[in-house]
Every structure is written in structure tokens, then in C-alpha cells.
Amino acid sequence: MVGLSAQQVLQKRMDTTANNLANLTTSGFKVEHVVSRALTEKPAAASDQPQEVSFADAWTLQRDFSTGPLEQTGNPLDFALEGDGFFEVQSQAGTAYTRDGRFGLNDKGEVVTHNGDPVMGEGGPITVNPAGGPLSVSREGSISQDGVILGALKVMKFQTPGALERMGSNLWKATDEQPQPATDVRIAAGMVEGSNVNAVLELTDMIDISRAYTSVAKMLSQADELRGASIDKLAKVG
Length: 238
Hints:
Elements: H1 2-22, E1 32-38, E2 44-45, E3 52-53, E4 56-63, E5 70-72, E6 79-82, E7 86-91, E8 94-98, E9 103-105, E10 111-113, E11 120-121, E12 124-125, E13 135-137, E14 142-145, E15 148-152, E16 155-157, E17 165-168, E18 171-173, E19 180-181, E20 186-189, E21 191-193, H2 199-237
Antiparallel strand pairs: 1-4, 2-3, 5-21, 6-20, 7-8, 7-16, 9-10, 11-12, 13-14, 14-15, 16-19, 17-18
């Protein structure tokens, strides 16, 4: 059971590492790592010694919200956040937040995410005239066209971003903490924030996890062989 517990934690670590590598080129993606713990209830004890047996548990995921590298795209509707904050969007599941600034326009002229979710401005969705002139975006997030301010991107921040719940599609949902306006964040137009995944570290971690899993599997196999040999000897004695 101890070996099985270790394998479950290692499998969770491997899945998380593989997901990090799969999102190496995903804009605004934040790397995750498994945080394990020893179970406090002590569910078993060794029969030959008066010591309790401890089990490991994949307790939670720890997310690193450090800023990824900024990549220039030249697309006027691509935005990167310089500082701590999230773009607010209206997803089908409700209000959501993202660092992925790859935006575009829908058939209504609304600024939307690459998944089609409206990007929120201070007064609601921001609407652009597709046939109008080029867009101008200030460092504070105001979007102008033909000399008229169309709206300002709504950027929010959290004191504890690690408490956000992942929704999928690079979106996050607030839990207990209410967001506050991110007044100190600056917006870079024509750029997107890259993933903060370090490929070398993740590949090294994957190799270490694979070796540990193989060692545990070998230990379990040897334990099974010893158990089988013991049963055979007892049967012969009986």
C-alpha cells in the first residue's frame, strides 16, 4: 500500500509535468507543480515494529503566476499585461479571468478572446468598427479609433492568485476573494505574454519522476516475489 501510494503521487506529478510541457507555447499559461503531504490519519501500522506507516498524498496543485516572456506579434488586438493582473472576460460559465491576450473581433465587432468570449471593458464589452481606422491603445488600456475612445480594457488583480480555480481554455474563476482593479498594470499592444514554463526544468523533472516510478515498481515486484516464496514455504511446511 505504501508503494501504491507513492506511485499515485508520482503519476499525478507526471501528468502535471506533461501538461506543463504541452502548454510550452500557450500564451499566458502558468506552470503547475504537485504539492504532496503525509496523511495525518495514519491509516496503517507495521506488524513487526511498533511504528505507524505513513502514506503520501497528492494534496494540491501549486501554480507559479510569475510573468512569462513578452512576444511581439504586430496584431493590434494582441495585448500583454506588464504586472500582476488579469483581463476580465465573460465566458459561457460566467465571469472569468485570463492572462492570454490573443484577442480578435466577432461578427458584432466586439473584442473577444480566441475562444469567442467577450473581453470586458469598464462599461461592458468593447465594440470596434471593423471598417473604421486603425486602433490606438494606451498603456492604461484605453482603446481608441478615429479619435474616439471606444472603451478601456478591464484589468483586475487578486491578492492571492494561487486561490483561483482553473476553468480550462486558459481561463480562471474567482473563489472566495473578490478582485480589485489593477491600477498599476501597464498594457503592451501588439504583444502577448508567453508561457512561463521552463522546458529544461520540466524535462529534468520528468526524467526524475520516471526513474522514481520505476524504482517503486521494482520494489513492489520484489515484495510480491518474496510474498509468493513465503507462501510456498509455508505450504510445504504445512
